[in-house]
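User: For a benchmark we're assembling, each entry needs the component sequences followed by a predicted structure for the full assembly. Here are entry 17's components. Please fill in the structure.
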Amino acid sequence: MSIYSTLTPEQFDAIGQELDAIRNREIADLGEKDEKYIRNLIKRQRQLEVAGRGLLFAGFLPPAWLAGVACLSAAKILDNMEIGHNVMHGQYDWMGDKEINSRKFDWDNTCTNTAWKHTHNFEHHTFTNVLDKDHDIGYGILRMSEDQEWEPRFILNPILAVILSTFFQHFVAVQSLKLEDYLIYKTKTKEELKAEFKPTWKKMRKQLVKDYLLFPALAGPFFPFVFAGNVAANLARNLWSSQVIFNGHFPEEVEQFPESVLEDESRGHWYVRQMLGSANFEGGRLMHIMSGNLSFQIEHHLFPDIPAHRYAALSPEVKAICEKYGLPYNTGSFMKQSLSVWKRIFKMALPGKAKPSDKGLRGKVVALMGESQSDSRKAA
Amino acid sequence: MSATTQTSSRFQQGLSRLLQSRVAEVLSYPHGVDRYLEVFNPVWSATEVRARVEAVQHLTADSVTLTLKPNANWEGFVPGQFVQLTVSINGKLHTRCYSPANSLHRKDGTIELTAKAHADGFVSRYLREGVRIGDVVTLSQAGGEFALPELRPERVLLISGGSGITPVMSMLRTLCDEGFKGDITFLHYANRAEDMIYAGEVAEIAKRFDNVTVLRAFADEQDGGELSGLFSSEHLFNSVPGFAQATTFLCGPPPMMAAVEKVWEEQGISDRLHKEQFTLATAVVDDSESAEGEVRFARSETLVTNDGNNLLEQAEAAGLTPESGCRMGICYSCTCKKTAGKVRDLRTGEISSGDEEDIQLCVSVPVGTVTLDI
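Assistant: Structure for entry 17:
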């Protein structure tokens, strides 16, 4: 039986109050420290990017090519994770800087700011791990939950997961289109899809032209070296960021929820769902920065709009709250969490049975999916 | 102009064109060229005016005078105009308007801004206490209708109060530098002699230039200046003969400006009075729980009475459809610009400043009248 169904309403309220208190305290403390952190990080990221692109122009020398790829990969990872993802969460909106805020910021990634905020900030963070509402459960491509009805295509779950990771930026870019609704469930028309794809394509094109045409062309005869370097850097960013993100919600013990939990959900319930639906991984300071502090996925899901560099300091407090109320605080090494994720990916390839303890929840989900699968998909 | 400066300015123009080109835009996509330039030097920018603080002086006990060296994007100003100065205070950017006080003919390309640090002046206090030589600030281009006409008037009357001296000081310095031959009367009001900014320089100018008459009046002192007390029409009638014929430039606190304006109205010569209000009358803050005021949706030209609900609900009730998402303050889909008024954060109870800033509609309730850019 999940702890979610054994906590009393008073306990939910108490958890809500404790976490709200932490949140208010942190918000009140925002200031120069956070500004310095993000400005410095942006500076480092831009330096790495300029260095990486510069080195790739000398990419005919193998050490320069390798160093260039390393710098550019690191730059793209920082840009997407610790900077882009966090800035678009509104973590730095309070600064009043027109460049560093959730409305204007755009990242070195094919996904548009608007689409990202919808699928990620809104759908994923509001409806975290709620089946049919949180599109991040499998991205419409994978089967990541026993409660997700098995379809023959899921036999390819592991292969699909590798493809998803390899082209992660493009999948994220088109995530808001819900391609599966057009390709598999036929609930979306070609015209609808075309119209929705337009702004995404505009951004994709610019990114592709920059990385695969303009920068290589500037290198003249060394076009292939720069081209290959940019392919490698985008690939490194894709593989790393997808694994980090998978580790946040797909390790085996992480819970998923039926849509019914959303009815009259209190702040406390929402917090508990975030804690049960997320997992951390351990590492040093560099690991935390390079993962955009998503190594503190639990803290991030509780406080998505608090600057992420603060999560490390908050984690002992969150852990203590978990212990106090008997909630799991899912963490482990990067390797352990990654293995656990891939185990789930392989397991879900086969039509598995739900655990008996989850029957109550699952019954509702199955009924719901049977009745109005396409509708609820649309609503999401 | 020497050959070297010609080459360097041509080089600068070429560079600026290159940085603003389509190719540069694509190469630096999506961040833009400026975001890379500033990494190398915070003053560098292809479009924005940024300036380095070259000197910080305290001419009076409660004022600060900053000498700023703007980058090449600065297009200059007309004496009397203002600029918007943006500084970061404890992580947050704040913007205020200040009028450059320097002469148009200053040779070193710097501009001079003077601020008086009021007790409740958050930004001016920071300018006085927190700004250091070498800091980089952001400026807007100069703007404002209050400006010395290109065709200089025959006779000029400058009236200022407190820190309202800055735009008229720029006019006075510019006219003196130009060898202006007409009569200039400079009428200034301050609380005490020691509070008068630029007192020494003004006295110096009065001594050096026969055509400049300086009249000072101090509210708290009977005998410190040529006149005394607050502005009164007697000051004009007794001490500024022919004021009605002069082109007058006025800048000071609201009550003083109102008193001056009244005289010009009574004389039927309001068209000769140019004025700059440099402080806005502060809005009354409603701290009570009861909902008051209006919510103004500026872009959709819609106005509703504040019903105490969060701004997202109020906007929707008014038939608007702002972008929205979680309705609990986490997704930032409904973030929009508040152009005026204060709001309370439903989560923390904190009341925002009355400045222009981004707010989340779904967790903000208006405190009094609020204007939104929706």
